[in-house]
Automatic annotation (TrEMBL):
SMART domains: UDG (SM00986), UreE_C (SM00987). Residues 19-177 form the Uracil-DNA glycosylase-like domain. Keywords: DNA damage, DNA repair, Glycosidase, Hydrolase. InterPro entries: MUG/TDG, Uracil-DNA_glycosylase-like, Uracil-DNA_glycosylase-like_sf. Coiled coil: none annotated. This is TDG/mug DNA glycosylase family protein. GO terms for biological process: base-excision repair, AP site formation.
Length: 186
């Protein structure tokens, strides 16, 4: 598909999945809540115009320039990847039930154990709390690990998350980048 998806294409994307951008031994595996319909329709992560993942990734120092979602596979060369807690596309993340998030969390743990990223960065505190049974978790480094993988929670970069401005999102991503680089040299 080229260009913006039509209303029919968006409707047809409901329940579809997007392949992970994933390889063994990544520095950071970013994990979204689930794909939105726009992402499902175009087959790219964080693709909806207004989603601030790509600008925050750049502002946080993970990429030397702002990448377009169509360039998502370039992340692998930088030691970065993308997956989701829940694979199926929905119009809104609040369409996911707690059981589905918990099952997605279990699948994510299995994926992390298989691929061994150095860091897992979940973008979405509420989804993280439910998926991992950590109701008091806060944004930032988490105490628990998955095997040898450290865990970090970032704010949801959706344009609907008005609690976090673009610059604050960039700072939150930058905090993870600094922690990731500090642990790399140890």
């Amino acid at each position: 598909m080229s260009g913006k998806p039509t209303k029919d294409e968006l409707a047809a994307a409901y329940g579809t999945t997007i392949p992970d951008v994933l390889a063994p031994g990544l520095d950071v595996l970013f994990c979204g809540i689930n794909p939105g319909l726009y992402s499902g329709a175009v087959g790219l992560h964080f693709a909806r115009p207004g989603n601030r993942f790509w600008p925050a990734l750049h502002a946080g120092g993970f990429t030397p320039r702002l990448l377009d979602p169509s360039e998502q596979t370039e992340l692998l060369a930088a030691g970065l990847g993308i997956t989701n807690v829940v694979a199926r596309a929905t119009a809104r993340a609040d369409e996911l039930g707690d059981d589905e998030l918990r099952l997605g969390g279990q699948a994510l743990v299995a994926k992390v154990r298989e691929y061994h990223p150095r860091w897992l960065a979940v973008v979405g505190i509420t989804a993280y709390r439910i998926a991992f049974g950590e109701p008091k978790a806060k944004v930032g480094r988490q105490e628990h690990r998955i095997g040898g993988t450290r865990v970090w929670v970032l704010p949801n970069p959706s344009g609907l998350n008005a609690h976090w401005s673009g610059p604050r999102l960039g700072e939150a991503f930058g905090d993870l980048r600094r922690a990731e680089q500090a642990h790399r040299v140890q």
